[in-house]
Every structure is written in C-alpha cells, then in structure tokens.
Predict the 3D structure of the following.
Amino acid sequence: MVELNEVLYNELLVELRVDKDFITEAAGAFRWDLEQGLKGTEFSSLQMLPSYIGLPEGNEKGKYLALDFGGTNVRAAIVELLGAGRYTTVRRVEKPLITDSYNLIDSHATREELFSFLAGIIEEVIDHDSQTEYFLGHTFSFGTEQHGINEARLIRWAKEFAVPGVEGEDVNRLLYAALSARGFGNVRPVAILNDTVAVLLATAYSYPDTCIGSIYATGHNTCYMEKMPDIGRPACILNMESGGFSKLVPTKWDLQLDSLSEKPGRQRLEKMVSGRYMGELFSRLVGELLGLENAPVLSAVDMSLLMADDSSAYQSLKGLPAEMSLEQYENLGALAKALAIRSARLVAATWAGTLWHLASNDKILPQHIAVDGSVYQHMPYVRENVMRALYELLGEEAGGLEPVLVKDGSGVGAAIAAAVACRDI
Ligand code: BGC
C-alpha cells in the first residue's frame, strides 16, 4: 500500500490558502501595477499593450474568416455577423497542435511547419476556394507589440510554446506568406488580436456595458477598455498580459515549478492559476505526497475528476499507483480543490484591481465581465469562488457584476475585429 505523507499534506493545505488579507493586498498591488504600467514606469509587471481597437458598436455585419491560435487546438471558422449582437458560425475546422505523430509547439518544430499547418486549416474551412476574396481576423493568444490593427510582433512565447524564429516577427505577415505559398493569397489577414480582446469584443457586441475580458484556460490573461490612457495614445483596449503579474508571494512549490519551466521568472501569476500549470503543479505535489520516484502526469482535467466526488472515475486516472485507498484519492481531491480555490481567488483579485481602476467617482458600475476558458467553464469550485472573492473584496458592489461565459469568443471576436478593420480599408 502506498503511503501519503500526512504532515506535508496538512502543510500544503495551509500554504495554498489565500485569505481575505492576501487577496486584498493582491488586488491593491494589481491596481498599482496597472496604473504604473499606464504611466510606463519600470516598476510594473503588467505590459499594458495597446490593441488598436475599441469596443464594437453592435451593428458590425458580414461574413469573415476567423483563426484562433494559442491553446492546445487551432480553430478556423467562417463567422457571419448579423448585427444587433447576433452572429452565427457557418463552418468550423479544429485540429490539435500536438498528437502522437507531431508536435508543433516545441523547439523542434519550424516556423514554416507551424504556419503552413495554420494555412492548411484555413484552406479547409474555405473548402480550398482560391478565388473568392476573404478577410481574416486572427486571434493570436500571446503578448504582442502592436503598431496597428493588423501589425503585431510576438514579444515572447508563453504556455511552453517554443517554436524558433517567431519571436520578434510580424505574425500576420508570416501567416500571409504561408497562405500565399499554398496558393491562397485570396485570404487576406486584416486584423490580429489577443484572445482576451476577442472575448471582450464578442461580449460587448451583445452587452455594451462590458469593459473587461479575461481568459481562464490553458493560459490566463485579462484586458480592459481604457477610455483615458494618460499616455498620449487614443482610447483602446489594453492587453495587460496579466499572467505576468509578479507581486504575489509564491510558495516554494510555485518557485520550483517556475525554475523548471521554459521561461523562468516570467508569467508568475499564470503559473499559479492557469490550467496548463495547475495540472503540472498538482502532479509535482502528488509525486511528493506519495513519495513517488517519478511524479505522475496529471492535468487540470484529472484534477476536476478527483474533485467530482465520483469514486468510480478514479480508476481511469493514469499514472497514480494502483493500490491507493479511497481516502487517499479523497485527499488528492482536497488538494486539487485547494489549488482550484487559490486560483479562483487570485484571478478575482486581479479583476477587482482592474474594477477599482475603472471605478467612476469610486463607484464600480454594474457591468458584465467577459470570460472564456476551460478552467472557468469546467473546473469545480472555480466560478463560485471567483464570485465569493469578489464579494469579499468589493462588498455589495459585487452584486452588480455579471461574469458571462462566452463560448467561442475568440472566433466571434476575430470576425468583429476583421469587420472593424475592413471599415477602414
Ligand atoms: C498569453 C496571453 C494569452 C493568455 C491566454 C498567455 O500565456 O501570454 O497573451 O492571452 O495566455 O491564452
């Protein structure tokens, strides 16, 4: 029978608890970083990247191509915007970036392979039509330095992507080169945007009071509509790259995970809250708790399974010792729950910090908050703990906030951005 180290288990449950004082400080520090970032001082860990796009009017119409790249799957779609906040997805193709036979995200993949793969998916969604002119919005879910709605250079990869030759490059240029090389120069990328921006556009299309867009999935990040950036730039949505927020006190386990990642020192908040890293942190902790020589490989989905209170599903978890007791599975479930709750409370703190910044005369206006992502959608305990933490931080004003889960916000947002860009062509 495998032993679970009870002393460590109890310690971990305490270490992972982030109480009201912790999140209050985190929210204040986040607001401070946001405002320092707006002023462009060196003290901020937020990047405040302009997107060159504002909120939609709701009357944008037409058929556009959307490409969504930046998670474990790539999606291309034809989206028809119908106006008045309505839209329909006409066609859609989705493919994974990693299978048993290829890996298009690690350092062995070439940028040509990657972009040709993306172009291939677009080709499929338009049914190999090389004649009609198509306008494409590209949701590219990494931090980019933008110089216009269609010009974005990748600052640096995140989420363990490591394909060489893309950092510093104009991403839509690479995409268009790949499309042209395959004979599909008729597809014109006209807009590029972060996934947080896409989700905000998609939600604001139906709910005009939405100012904040957040992704809570493989990766994590938040953007918001900055009406008055005190920085000599026109009003636009700012991508904060909030996954890089670094003013939280980490546990020694967070530090260890960071030091072994592709980019040590970067994306410190993301490594504490997102699905990609929560699964990894959980795996390491389970390895330690059970004294295993090799930590099991467990994902955020496995964590959800352990939290679900359905013991019949436990056996399907690969990588755990066969001879575990029911109580031990339950202990692992409680550890997963502690990680999920910590994640939800930290994300809520960053939203609260943003809401404090946006408050008008110190009053937080009732509004929708756009959220997309598998962790928010599927992980037990996350949604209610985000709300609970918002109430702790904002009191009654939290009652006016309505987080909306946007499904396929990336596709719809990309289509809206393409529509806005085409207005100016
Ligand atoms: C990227 C962000 C992105 C987030 C969610 C992070 O790793 O840096 O740009 O918005 O993941 O996909």
